[in-house]
Amino acid sequence: MAKTSIDKAVLKKGILAGDRASLSRAITLCESHLSIDQELSLMLLEELHSHSGNSLRIGVSGIPGAGKSTFIEALGMELIGKHQKKIAVLTIDPSSESSGGSILGDKTRMNDLSRSPNAFIRPTATNTQLGGVGQHTQAAILLCEAAGFDTIIIETVGVGQSELNVNKMVDVFLLLHIVGAGDDLQGMKRGILECADLVVINKADEGQEQKAALEASNLKKALHLFPQKHLGWSTKVFTCSSIEKRGISAIWNSIQAHQEQLKSTQQFDLQRKHQTQAWFADLQRRSIVDFVLLQPEIQELINRAKAQMESEEISFISLLRNTKIALSELFSPPKKDKEITKK
Amino acid sequence: MAKTSIDKAVLKKGILAGDRASLSRAITLCESHLSIDQELSLMLLEELHSHSGNSLRIGVSGIPGAGKSTFIEALGMELIGKHQKKIAVLTIDPSSESSGGSILGDKTRMNDLSRSPNAFIRPTATNTQLGGVGQHTQAAILLCEAAGFDTIIIETVGVGQSELNVNKMVDVFLLLHIVGAGDDLQGMKRGILECADLVVINKADEGQEQKAALEASNLKKALHLFPQKHLGWSTKVFTCSSIEKRGISAIWNSIQAHQEQLKSTQQFDLQRKHQTQAWFADLQRRSIVDFVLLQPEIQELINRAKAQMESEEISFISLLRNTKIALSELFSPPKKDKEITKK
Questions:
Q1: What is residue A287's predicted lDDT score, i.e. its pLDDT?
Q2: Predicted ipTM of the assembly
Q3: Average pLDDT taken over every residue of chain A
Q4: The predicted structure's pLDDT at residue B66
Q5: Which residue of B has its CA nearest to A185?
Q6: Cα angle at A267 between A262 and A268, to 5 degrees?
């Protein structure tokens, strides 16, 4: 039997003891494309599943320049200092296809937080092939919880699909705006605003307070038109200055009030249950797709099409229809065929 | 035989005559999830394929607030007025999952352009289920070209996967920045900058010119570190004011120079060929996945898992492994089985 260099029992023990190196290695294992690693990571996740779930999962989103890192650092340091929390920050980074990284490394951001023994910061890669934000991040959340982190912050860059995915894996969703980005509303999609439990107008720094307050008031009016995401909770709007560390406590209090509201109405457990089920359904779907695409018959179909395209012998839309015919033949029930041939 | 209400021959004739209503209906047909519509749209695309390809395809991207609509309107009006072009604008709109729309309708944007008889503006939906920007947009490009539009502008909102997808279907890719968004570079992913043939610093309005020029100069230095996307073309940086209609001509001249460079080195045809092949590979992959997920055996697998999750009888990671076992059995070569049983 092939032996892998990673000892699952040692890794599990390390994670449960809160060892960061073990946690990091386990997240890397979950991100691996090798089937041996995937098998191992599934076993590890299964064993650690009962140790997970005891955290508050916070999603933080906003367009580039909204100050997400500074905000997360301010919130994180306050939670560590005043509330003895242990913070894991998972940043979702739409990978560069060409070179696999951002211009400025994530290490230069969140300086204070990254030095704290009670914080763990980890960028999680998105799988561009399948466009999946969910899969690896969900696994990383589970692992961080098993390692004893009680507050998980998931940061997403950009405006679009990734926010909607993150909304499906957090208990509370914060959307960051910036003062003075008035016509941002135009670019801000309704679907993302609908996900927000709290909207935070950041960069309400000294001299900008009044402007920020006006924008907060306008935003409140706009949000009034939206349906409630959670029973008994209408989206709250806050202003804050992450750099001057003002307004952070009020946001934290509101996050806690949101959680109390959800827990008092059984919505917390229900949301978690639905999220787990959605994660599983997604994992199952991907696993089916991966499996099927690797089948020799399907690979042959893909390679044949590629060769025909290369030689330009055939219109590509005809080729596509041939693919469907080949698939139909492949999936015609074999038992029935046998019966027919017997007759 | 079931009859559809859409007459393909009439639709084809309408499109080739440049009729906007026919073009709109055909794009809607391509976006349909009904298999009868998909079949029809494939036939239509195949028949119109030979009438497509004769356009310049321009991708325009940038974060919300960068002024994409204003820029496209300024560029479009200039091309229509000075160069007798016919412009189709396809805006890619990450759909709202909850309600399927943006807060401010796209109709309020690009006022002048939307009134011009030589412009056609159409938001194309993204298929959130499969995360696909590509499929419908590629079809829409083909249809617009068949309808006689010689300049196709594809606008994407947000920063992330959709830009990388759009880059795979255009001849030239423009990235819009705004003056004063200094630390935007941090959020701007390397992969997206690597796609840019031109970077435009927008909102260089009166009084902002100097600041914009400084930022352009800094950006040029940063871009210097990047590999060339096209042989003989390093990414150009421009400043412009879309509202004051300044700097637009220089950008258009540079787009043309870019096309000449690509055509003189055979890169234009090669890029188009690769794009068509990538589109086809993507279509084929999606068609395989769609087909497989609809098979009764696979549906049963998914439904069984759902029921088990609902009753919480079983760990979901175990369930996932059961799925793999079921798939392996489903895909075990039937011919081999027969041989074994014969022996």
A1: 84
A2: 0.72
A3: 82
A4: 82
A5: B103
A6: 65
